[in-house]
Amino acid sequence: MKATDRNIDDAVGKCLIDIRQGNTQSIAELFELTYRGLFSVAMKYCSHTMTAEDLVAEIFANIQYIAEHYKSGYKAFNYLCKALKNKYLNMKRGEKVRSFAPLNENIIATKENIDEKVSSIAVREGLKLLNEEEYLIIYYKFYFDMTFREIANNTDKSLGAIQRIYKKAVAKLKDYL
């Protein structure tokens, strides 16, 4: 470890101790010292910019709790990285059990209210060509960023059926656009 790395790690440790003692001013300093490094670590775990930003934001949202459990003398940045890894693993565990509600006008668009959700006239008109089943799969895939497996579980259809319907819907949209 270089001397500069050691100095930064000491500054991070001091910030964590200050936060534990109730000095909320140190949160801004901690953010400045660690954001880029934590974001870089988060990107290695999830490879998705918005998810990485969310992970780092969750670390700072829970920084008082994290600081309370920090023990002086340990490498402070490594401690934050471990907390980040735990947040990531908890997020991945949560994804496995999450479920989505079936098609319902209260939570997702229907063919009648597409105008409110889609700004491109061409896309809006293309979506009107899809039947309800195709529309639902496209909507779940692009608006909720669901995997085919999640869509299959949510619609009680097989994975293969979801993929076939999706390909058919995309082909219709390509032909139209």
Q: Give the total of beta strands.
A: 0
Contiguous low-pLDDT stretches (5 residues minimum) are 96-109
Number of helices: 10
* Backbone shape: elongated
Helix content: over 70%
Amino- and carboxy-terminal Cα gap: 56 Å
| Biggest sheet features | none
- Please write the string of helix (H) and strand (E) elements: HHHHHHHHHH
Structural class determined from secondary elements: mainly alpha
- Percent strand equals under 5%
Mean pLDDT across the residues is 78
Structural Rg: 23 Å
Account of the protein in words:
With 177 residues, the chain is mostly helical. The chain is 74% helix and 0% strand. It has ten helices and no strands. It has helices spanning 3-20, 25-46, 49-61, 63-68, 76-97, 114-117, 121-128, 132-143, 148-155, 159-176. α1 (3-20) crosses α2, α3 (49-61) crosses α5 (76-97) and α8 crosses α10 (159-176). The protein is elongated and about 60 Å long. It starts with a helix and ends with a helix. The model is unreliable at 96-109 (pLDDT under 50).
